[in-house]
Structures
1.
Amino acid sequence: MAFELPKLKYAYTALEPHIDARTMEIHHSKHHQAYVTNLNNAIAGTDAEHLSIEEICKNISKYAMPVRNNGGGHFNHSLFWSILGPSTGNEPEGELLAAINAAFTSLADFKSQFAAAATGRFGSGWAWLVKKDGKLVISSTPNQDNPLMDVADVKGTPILGLDVWEHAYYLHYQNRRPDYITAFWNVVNWGEVAKRFKASQ
Ligand code: MN
């Protein structure tokens, strides 16, 4: 069973003006599609063809670099699209908000620490909110690595992720990664983040 590019639950224009339609279209239909195609090519005829992308990530040290780069790319982008959505002004609430407050003092402090991790990631990579040993922590990974991978410095279940590769923001924000990160908070689908948090319990 080959991996497939997931359909977005919203239009490419839906995240405007925070993430522009052209960036969304290229990012989803070209970049993510390439990760899917290259992952399928890399695992063709191997046992990995019968595994979930999560299972592959959890044992990623057993695989060659094309599987790590493209498998990570497929998992990361699938998560990313799911936790984005049209700007509604929604914020975390309930158990998720309580866990954020317990780990980071306040939602504002969480956002600022997450932004620091995303800004500070040199070159290409991701910032993450991770459930690790029952607690929420922030981490960042290089390239297409993620916290599920057995090679990650901080291992756990990713709850929220932000792509800070230049292809995620350069058309609209050019070199202004911090502005992209600030705008990102407007298009987070906190209901989906809460679902992932609950599933990690
Ligand atoms: Mn990307």
2.
Amino acid sequence: MNGEQFSSELVNALRGATRVVALTGAGISAESGVPTFRDAQTGLWSKFRPEELATPEAFQRNPKLVWEWYAMRRARLREVVPNAGHLALAEIERRVPTFLIATQNVDGLHQRAGSRQVLELHGNITRTKCFSEDSPVAEWSETGEVPPRCPRCGGFLRPDVVWFNETLPEEAFAQADAASRACDLFLSVGTSALVYPAASLPLSAKAGGAMVVEINPESTPLTARADHFLRGPSGRLLPALVRAAWPGVSEQLPR
Ligand code: BV8
């Protein structure tokens, strides 16, 4: 299916939707220059797989290495901006009665694109918390020690993200699952659909009777279950889909 000619069933479903949920993964930020999890790691990190670094065990084994991996990713975030895919989702939120983004991403780009209803299922890399207390830390004194230490208890600080084998924020996931079961249109955008429980959300949407649409240059384990598979980059397909549903959409949406 060439992305720019969408079926009328899909276009009408978006235009007439009352409750839309979007699950996003690293792929929606790829065109902003943020490497996806499945992209090969480069430089110092090329010998590590993300799954080997994004765990509490990795942090306990080598807190400095894991802290510095996140510090590098945070620094890279300061160079990137939301892309047309993020902006298109923010535009859909302005045009449908209820819209929710459940994102696996930790980059904060949806909020920077203007989306307001965003659930961060895996946390946010720009926030920091105490590893021992598991509570947020906004400021700390830089002593040159890496990782820095909690000003309250002296334990190591860590990024406020959900690592593998850590549980997701309960309230956020429960809200995302309920919204998925109740929605009439579910968009799965830029995710390999491999990481649970986030990957269960499109299945919950399907069980609730929603139309499930997947946007990805590659097929995934979800593709066979999706009602529509739009093969291609979300930075191109999402704005095109929004313009197909609402032809008058302001030119602010990059082509
Ligand atoms: C949990 C934050 C309960 C940190 C992340 C066996 C079976 C099933 C499940 C498990 C299992 N063994 C273990 C588990 C549980 C595990 C899991 O699912 N493992 C998988 C790998 C099998 N899940 C967990 O551990 C979760 N917690 O289950 O708690 C529990 C508690 C205690 C003990 C046991 C269980 C926690 C998961 C959260 C982990 N944290 N991130 C950080 O960012 O550093 S996950 C991390 O990887 C990302 O957040 C993201 O969610 C995930 C990668 O997924 P994607 O976002 O999809 O990115 P990916 O690179 O994979 O794919 C990108 C896609 O984009 C590709 O498809 C590509 O084609 C596409 N793309 C590329 N360019 C574009 C594009 N698409 C559109 N446009 C483009 N231009």
3.
Amino acid sequence: MNEQQWLAMDEYLCDRTQTPDAALEAALKSSADEGLPAINVAPNQGKLLQMLAQLRGARRILELGTLGGYSTIWLARALPADGTLITLEAVEHHASVARKNIERAGLSGVASVIVGDAVDTLESFVRDGIPPFDFIFLDADKKSYPAYLRLVLRLSRPGTVIVADNVIRSGRVADVGSADPDVIGVRKFFDMLAADTHVTSTAIQTVGSKGWDGFSISIVS
Ligand code: SAH
Ligand code: DHB
Ligand code: MG
């Protein structure tokens, strides 16, 4: 098996399960034109996020790590017209590209981007006692996943679904001796999930157009 085969398979799967979508394609094109890194979720993973949020019946969605808003658009489309998605982004330029992409997708009424360090924003949410979220997607810096998990659990309620992206990193996360802050962060995140009796979790490895990576899914009880 090699990456060319994974890519060919992803192309086949996306061809058979997705319809051309001008807003999503424009979001990727403007992100590339504006110099953003191509580290958005793959189309089939974006659709999975949308379907999971739909299955959950989510009315309030929280995303950490907006980039150009590609995953934001997938998730926001799972919402009813009076739903809410809040996405947190540290880099002003990313947020500004994302806002245009969200607007073009006709989702400005449900999705809003908040600029700042996600830890600071989450702490302010906890302080302000904002209503809990139904679906949470962790996809900002991986070294901070432990801090994010601690905070988003305080913004959850029984039934909240938490999906965390990039928890495999080409298998590096299995390396107990790794000095990579991202790997250390993801391993601590898994330790916290393992120790928390109020969270049911699984994690899945993926190969495809984004290489070898994967995600975890947790349900809060
Ligand atoms: N969810 C996007 C990809 C996000 S890439 C998609 O799939 O389309 C990760 C993003 O997290 C980057 O835009 C990066 O600027 C942002 N980020 C990194 N550290 C952050 C922090 N401390 N707080 C908020 N956002 C952060
Ligand atoms: C990186 C971040 C992501 O969210 C992703 O999906 C892939 C890579 C990164 O920071 O390298
Ligand atoms: Mg990611």
